[in-house]
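Appendix B. Worked example

We walk through a single record from start to finish. Start with the input: the chain for DUF6594 domain-containing protein, Glonium stellatum, length 277.
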Amino acid sequence: MTARSVPGPPNSLVPPAPFQYPQAQPPHYLARPPGPDLSKTTVIGYELLADKLSECPRGDIAGEDKVIPMYRKFEQLNHRILLHLQDEISELEEELRYLDECIAQMSPVSEEGRPLPASRRIESRHGGELHWRRTNLLGRIYLKLGQYNQALSSYSTVVKSLDPANSEDLQVYRTWMEKHAPVEKFESQFLDHKNDLFSITRSKLVSSSSGVGPIQSTALGLSLILLLPLLAFAMIPGLLGRLFIIILIGSTEATVVASTELIFLMTVKEWVTCASM
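Next comes the structure step. The output line below is what the pipeline stores for this chain.
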């Protein structure tokens, strides 16, 4: 009697093939390369690209040679990570509520039937397994919340402080990359994600590092202008001259307030009150 083979399930899943990185053409190295000539500087590859991106804008550089640094913000991945962390914390929150309910129902009560005051110190020394599990769970929640808050704050800062990439600047970047080819083509495909790119300009970096916005700078300038009448009065003894200085400084302050966002900080009535003082 011959053994019959049992056929497998008709819809058996076939595991996917492992991911393979694109193969780049290996460089042709010499068998015994000679020692480098240290009397000259050779810049290629990512070093060449980094030098170009860190190049200070000068007047003698043509417009098509000014490459603005651009990077991906990985918006979809950021949302994916935030959603994942958010659900993990929600799951831990539900587990904590379950442990709290179990401990609350098992806790002793007073003669009046009221639950006794809780004590973390007593629970840590004489508590049972549920108390230990809750303490351990709180530690896990603390670590997970730290990851979530850091990811959320970091992504929010990037979105607020950086500008989307400009189409013209993106074309300049691509043209320079095609002309000089510092890196492999598939490693420069990040430029194809137009809607996911942001640009970094030198003025943006300076304003971000200084931490002083336009409103703060204008307010600081106005406070310095208020000191000018005191200095002018010491040098101009005449009444008419002092009145002229007051009118000039007042009109200057009114122009600055009306032409900037400072006018929205207070109502018109409050500005008039401040001016009369």
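Two observations about the output. The mean pLDDT is 78. Residues 75-107+117-205 form one domain.
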